[in-house]
Specification:
elongated; alpha/beta; transferase; 2 domains; 7-stranded mixed sheet; Rossmann fold; two-stranded antiparallel sheet; binds glutamine
């Protein structure tokens, strides 16, 4: 349904909400986020100036965005940006949209007793969200981030430039292939871990994200297990492995780490109280 006359901010939001309420579980938030993007303003502006009338161009741009959202396109893809760890990340359809759940992995990594000049590796970096957030907090860490997908590598590099973190090394690599003879004090990863047959893949934002970033064989465990096994050859003595996983995968991941010889294995919950990351320490052989 189109809307021809120019509207105030309050009317535009109301109209957008009515358009989105049947297709989005977050219709209010989406309507606001997209209008803020159109107007290039902060949230408080909408409530300070509810009577302000949008220009014809602004309303047209807003209509186009609302139509895309009605078709299910994620807000982050429409805007081209998603905030993670209070940093703005450029996003596109080549990789995963950063999730707030993953902030617990960043927080857990920052709490580890690592040396000031620790060597850290982020596997499957995607937008670069984890590696660049860690680098922003620990500028002295030697950070390497890899991704197998060429377009994701380009995106992570764009984010590195945008966030002005030039010392972060970003490489195209099939897991450890480009860092073959290197050891790290910390290896982190948010790999694909969803079972290929999971019904949730037909719902919401994941429909617009590539399966290369989402799904893995062996009920979603294939990449988690591959990383856990191969990390043993790339961790310095006492080095840590920190993996994000699905909320029902913690027990199996912990068991795998213990079987491989990791010690101090523990799971951390995210801010929604779901098991989200598992940590292990490598004592060498
Ligand atoms: N946590 C994400 C989701 O459930 C998936 C992220 C991943 O596979 N690494 O949508």
């Amino acid at each position: 349904m189109s809307h021809s006359s120019f509207s105030t901010i309050a009317e535009s939001l109301q109209w957008a909400y009515s358009q989105l309420v049947d297709s989005s579980e977050s219709a209010h938030i989406d309507a606001e986020a997209l209008l803020l993007h159109c107007l290039n303003k902060q949230r408080s502006y909408l409530y300070t100036w509810p009577e302000k009338v949008l220009t014809a161009d602004q309303f047209k741009a807003y209509q186009t965005m609302i139509e895309k959202r009605q078709q299910g396109v994620p807000v982050a893809h429409i805007i081209g940006e998603r905030e993670f760890w209070s940093l703005p990340f450029i996003v596109n359809a080549t990789t995963l949209i950063p999730r707030p759940d993953t902030e617990i992995l960043v927080e857990t990594a920052l709490n580890l007793p690592l040396a000031g000049n620790a060597k850290v590796l982020d596997l499957g970096t995607g937008t670069g969200a984890i590696a660049l957030s860690l680098a922003s907090e620990r500028p002295q860490w030697h950070m390497t981030a890899i991704d197998k997908i060429e377009d994701a590598v380009a995106l992570a590099k764009a984010n590195r430039d945008n966030l002005n973190l030039p010392h972060v090394e970003i490489l195209q690599s099939d897991w450890f292939s480009a860092v073959e003879h290197q050891d790290f004090n910390l290896i982190v990863s948010n790999p694909p871990y969803i079972d290929e047959t999971d019904v949730h893949l037909d719902l919401g934002d994941v429909r617009f994200e590539p399966s290369s970033a989402l799904t893995a064989a062996e009920q979603g465990f294939a990449d988690l297990f591959h990383i856990a096994q191969h990390a043993t050859k790339h961790l310095s003595n006492g080095g840590y492995l920190l993996l994000e996983h699905g909320f029902e995968q913690a027990l199996t991941v912990r068991q795998k780490l213990i079987d491989l010889g990791y010690v101090n294995v523990a799971t951390v919950r995210d801010f929604g109280s779901n098991d989200r990351c598992t940590l292990g320490q490598w004592r060498g052989e």
